[in-house]
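Lecture notes, part 5. Sequence design as translation. It can be helpful to think of inverse folding as translation between two languages: the language of shapes and the language of residues. The source text, in structure tokens, appears below.
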């Protein structure tokens, strides 16, 4: 008999398998050698019990599954495969694929499809940036995800060259494997701005952000790479302002300009303590070395001044604010300027009459305030050696030249004036030869509480420069009559007209030459008697004829030969004239003429009535 090595049941010697458990029966064998009778046998699988078999099978299965899972996890977390997959998504512009593999460096900032789309557009627009980014990611992989650049990116300010995306080793995955993540770096939007000193708010894509100021730079964020609309908002007493710029936020070293001409400004003016108005609103601030603002300096805002004075309220025009130092001048209104014009007119009328009658007391007519300067000016024109004979024909005031100024509480105004006289300084025994004389002056007035505006002094100037001239109401006929009725005129009546007519005819001939050479009849038109339309046409046709022939003339010499009174305010004037005449073919000639003219005496003075004849002299 023998026993089953698997279950221990007795079996016959001849049996090959156990009747109880079915295990194969084996013969015991003795080990040879030094072991002798102690040789042992190992049980076969068939000799194991069912329970033991189950246990052994489970262990094997667990080992196989564990090994398979390990290999799967090793493959799943393989950084090379991750990098290849991410690169493929970049190349294929797979937005959803990229979002599935990338995380934000700032937990509060969510990566959206817009961020990825903006990034892909940027990388396509700048292919070298894509190449550098992918190369940097491979370098991160080779350095086991330890990125110096990624560490720099964690700060508030990003150095130039920082990767937009890094590949970083971040902890373990499934306990055994190194975890690698693609991280989109957030960094600030950096601005250059003149806003730093102002009370501003900023927003990025409509969401308000807190600015940080660093040595003239402003940083907003951090924010993820992408395209953004940055808005600065200023709300102050004088201005409500929003300034927007579009920012392509992909290069950390970029600084975007967010400049607006908004600042404080100072006013320079011609009076103290004038009230400042901005865009029609009274600021309550006076222009005495005060800074006003903040305001826009781009010309879109307007400033003006107002001030009450002894002669009424004065204002400045509205001036566009365009500089840190702004000149804003107070000006007289039209009524106040008319007061000055009235003073100028009163001065000339009184001065002309006083000179004509040689009576200084006439300066005080029309309640005119005679200052020391006016009195001295009159004295300078009266002499024991000669008599002044003349009358006023024209006074023009340059309305663009008014200048108002306050100094130590005293108000001054100056204005440019031009006068024209027919006058002569007649010495005993001489004939009167009235000639036109024009002078320009700068009249300076000061305001007196009792007398109003009075002439302080007068300067000579070269002439009027403005484009707006006011001609004062001077009655030339009345002025000439005033002279004719004066004592000075009684002894020299005959010579007066003769002296006036001769210079007039000379002036007419000179103007005619200018009209011929300029081909402009209007130059001589006002010197022709309006009652002589036939002669006016004759002169106009002659100018046109010379233009067609290409002829020009120069007056070389002219002299009055004789003046004869024809009666009925008509005078016959004989003249001698010499000319150089230039022809179209480049030749020229010198000619002399005896000419006869008829002159009318009108209310506006001498006027040429007609050319009687002109005869060439050999």
């Amino acid at each position: 008999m023998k026993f089953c090595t698997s279950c221990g049941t007795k079996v016959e010697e001849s049996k090959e398998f156990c009747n109880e458990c079915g295990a194969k029966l084996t013969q015991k064998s003795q080990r040879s050698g030094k072991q002798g009778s102690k040789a042992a046998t190992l049980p076969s699988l068939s000799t194991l019990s069912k329970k033991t078999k189950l246990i052994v099978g489970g262990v094997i299965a667990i080992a196989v599954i564990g090994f398979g899972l390990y290999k799967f996890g090793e493959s799943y977390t393989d950084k090379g495969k991750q990098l290849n997959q991410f690169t493929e998504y970049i190349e294929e512009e797979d937005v959803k694929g990229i979002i599935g593999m990338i995380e934000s460096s700032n937990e509060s900032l969510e990566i959206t499809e817009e961020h990825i789309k903006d990034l892909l557009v940027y990388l396509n627009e700048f292919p070298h940036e894509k190449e550098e980014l992918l190369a940097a990611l491979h370098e991160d992989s080779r350095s086991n995800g330890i990125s110096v650049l990624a560490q720099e990116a964690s700060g508030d300010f990003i150095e130039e060259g920082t990767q937009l995306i890094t590949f970083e080793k971040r902890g373990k995955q499934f306990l055994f494997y190194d975890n690698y993540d693609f991280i989109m770096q957030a960094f600030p939007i950096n601005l250059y701005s003149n806003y730093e000193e102002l009370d501003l708010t900023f927003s990025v894509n409509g969401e308000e952000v807190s600015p940080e100021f660093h040595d003239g730079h402003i940083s907003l964020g951090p924010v993820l790479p992408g395209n953004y609309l940055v808005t600065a908002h200023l709300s102050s007493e004088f201005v409500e302002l929003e300034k927007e710029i579009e920012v392509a936020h992909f290069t950390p070293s970029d600084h975007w300009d967010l400049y607006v001409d908004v600042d404080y400004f100072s006013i320079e003016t011609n009076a103290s303590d004038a009230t400042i108005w901005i865009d029609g609103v009274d600021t309550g601030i006076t222009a005495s070395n005060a800074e006003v603002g903040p305001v826009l300096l781009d010309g879109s805002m307007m400033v003006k001044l107002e001030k009450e004075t002894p002669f009424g309220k004065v204002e400045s025009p509205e001036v566009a604010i365009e500089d840190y130092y702004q000149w804003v001048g107070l000006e007289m209104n039209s009524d106040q300027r008319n007061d000055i014009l009235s003073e100028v007119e009163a001065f000339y009328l009184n001065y002309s009459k006083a000179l004509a009658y040689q009576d200084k007391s006439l300066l005080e007519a029309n309640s005119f305030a005679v200052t020391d300067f006016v009195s001295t000016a009159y004295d300078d024109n009266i002499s024991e050696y000669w008599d002044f004979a003349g009358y006023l024909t024209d006074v023009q005031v340059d309305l663009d030249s008014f200048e108002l100024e306050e100094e130590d509480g005293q108000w001054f105004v100056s204005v440019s004036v031009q006068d024209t006289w027919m006058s002569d300084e007649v010495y005993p025994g001489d004939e009167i030869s009235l000639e036109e004389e024009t002078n320009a002056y700068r009249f300076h007035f000061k305001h007196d509480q009792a007398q109003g505006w009075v002439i302080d002094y007068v300067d000579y100037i070269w002439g009027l420069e403005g484009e707006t001239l006011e001609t004062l109401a001077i009655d030339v006929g009345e002025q000439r009559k005033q002279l004719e009725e004066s004592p000075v005129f009684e002894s020299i009546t005959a010579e007066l007209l003769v002296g006036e007519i001769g210079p007039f005819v000379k002036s007419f001939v000179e103007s005619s030459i200018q009209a011929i050479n300029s081909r402009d009849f209007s130059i001589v038109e006002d010197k022709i008697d309006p009652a002589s339309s036939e002669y006016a046409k004759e002169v106009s046709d002659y100018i046109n004829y010379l233009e067609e022939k290409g002829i020009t003339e120069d007056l070389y010499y002219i002299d009055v030969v004789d003046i004869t009174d024809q009666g009925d305010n008509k005078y016959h004037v004989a003249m001698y004239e010499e000319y150089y005449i230039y022809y179209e073919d480049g030749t020229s000639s010198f000619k002399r003429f005896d000419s006869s003219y008829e002159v009318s005496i009108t209310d506006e003075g001498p006027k040429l009535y007609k050319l009687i004849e002109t005869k060439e002299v050999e």
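The translated text above is only one of many valid answers, since several sequences can fold into similar shapes. The chain has five domains: 79-184, 187-257, 265-327, 334-485, 494-617.
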